[in-house]
Amino acid sequence: MHTPVTIIGAGLGGLTLARVLHVHGIPAEVYEAESSPMARTQGGMLDIHDYNGQLAVEAAGLMAEFRGLVLEGRQAMRILDHGGTVLFEQGDDGTGGRPEVQRGELRRMLLDSLPEGTVRWGHKVTGVRALGDGRHEVSFADSGVVVTELVVGADGAWSRIRTLLSDARPEYIGEAFVETYLYDADTRHPATAKAVGGGSLMVPAPGKGIHAHRESGDTLHTYVSLTRPMEWFDTIDFTDPATAAARVAAEFDGWAPEITALITDFDTAPVLRPHYTLPIGHRWDRTPGVTLVGDAAHLMPANGEGANLAMLDGAELGRAIAAHPGDVETALAEYEAAMFPRAAKIAAESVRFGELLSGAEGEDVARTLIDVFSTINEAARAS
Question: Which cofactors does this protein require (predicted)?
């Protein structure tokens, strides 16, 4: 291509696309609404899978750098009941296919791999319109405008670029996370640190659960899962951290204190993270000069695959563009033909898993989880 590919969004999918294009000598410009790389925290741990996310890292030529980010031991996992009894545990011997890294460090790795000036910070998209012949005009909040022959929406759940292709809007799925952190957990919260262990913790129950991760050092990152209508969450004042934490913790009355301390002993104010999804199998007709990657294309319930899929989308799109010089439409058609069924399959599996858990009662929720992980382990050993 003679003009840069215009990428909207400097998340993992957009940056992977920019990097793979750079590897193939194709220029790209990334426009990001945030004012800088440090404008906000970038979330917690990600398990980057050997069947999708790591393939993207390889395509980006960054496997050595990626391995330097992996936190040893974090693939360890345990499932507890609400009283704190260990029901299931597996260690991390370093041979698993889903090593854990910090999302912020992974994003920094991608940013550092791009030529200076590739990302244009502080460019919030306010509008986009088709000009004909595959060209599009993107407008920004500062009154700036860019006209491009290829625009890629990597701008997440509430994508502005998606409106060029689809009328689909994300819908709330009836579940949300409440996110908290504990710092210096081994010294300040030893009982809770012991309960979490060296990797991840799951304490499931019907309609709710507590999930925690040991991040770098002795930081514990918690996601409290609650299946409730948004109207229920609207009754909680999240601008009052103590009151919000107490209200959420009340849903776990009678649980072991070392578990509920992940909520009540917060070092950061509880943050509400509602879950939204696009329809399973979301797709669009081939439209010249535009496509989507990541959540902009296939937002789905939290399942550990979102970041992996976004990165693989970016890598596959970048390679398709490189494989068809001078023929962008063939590249986009090839990319979408592979991306649509891949995303639909994982979204459908995620829904089936959610239905399986929602149909279980009492300790059967934990038993269902244990059976799933046992099946996964057996399949991995067999392969």
Answer: FAD
Mean pLDDT value of segment 200-218: 94
3-state secondary structure of 102: strand
Q: How many CB atoms lie within 10 A of CB 37?
A: 16
Tell me how far apart the alpha carbons of residues 238 and 176 are, in angstroms, rounded to a whole number: 14
How far apart, in whole angstroms, are the C-alpha atoms of residue 312 and residue 141? 30
The domain ranges of the chain are 5-72+98-170+279-358, 171-276
Q: What is the pLDDT of residue 380?
A: 42
- Which H or E run includes 78? strand 77-80
The pLDDT assigned to 382 comes to: 44
**Residue 184: partners with Cβ closer than 8 Å, 6 or more residues away:** 218, 219
Angstrom distance (rounded) from CA 63 to CA 56: 9
Query: Cα separation of 26 and 46, whole Å?
Result: 28
What is the token pair recorded at 167? 């009328």
- Tell me what the mean pLDDT of segment 84-111 comes to: 92
For the chain, state the CA radius of gyration. 21
Q: How many residues does the chain have?
A: 383
CATH code linked to domain 171-276: 3.30.9.30
Residues forming beta bridges with residue 7, ordered by sequence position: 30, 152
Question: pLDDT by residue (tens digit) across 42-70?
Answer: 778 999 999 999 999 999 999 999 999 99
Q: Is 142 annotated as a binding residue?
A: no
The answer to whether 47 is a known ligand-binding residue is: yes
Q: What is the pLDDT of residues 334-377, one digit of tens each?
A: 999 999 999 999 999 988 877 776 655 555 777 776 776 555 54
Rounded CA separation 164/171 (Å): 19
- CA 159 to the chain's CA centroid: 15
Q: Is 70 left (phi over 0), alpha (psi -120 to 50) or beta?
A: beta
Kindly state the helix (H) or strand (E) to which residue 292 belongs, with its residue range.
strand 290-292
Contacts of 33 (CB under 8 A, 6+ apart): 122, 123, 124, 125, 155
Q: Say yes or no to pLDDT of 1 above 70.
A: no
In CATH terms, is domain 5-72+98-170+279-358 a member of 3.50.50.60?
yes
Of 179, 148, 144, 182, whose CA–CA distance to 164 is shortest? Answer: 148
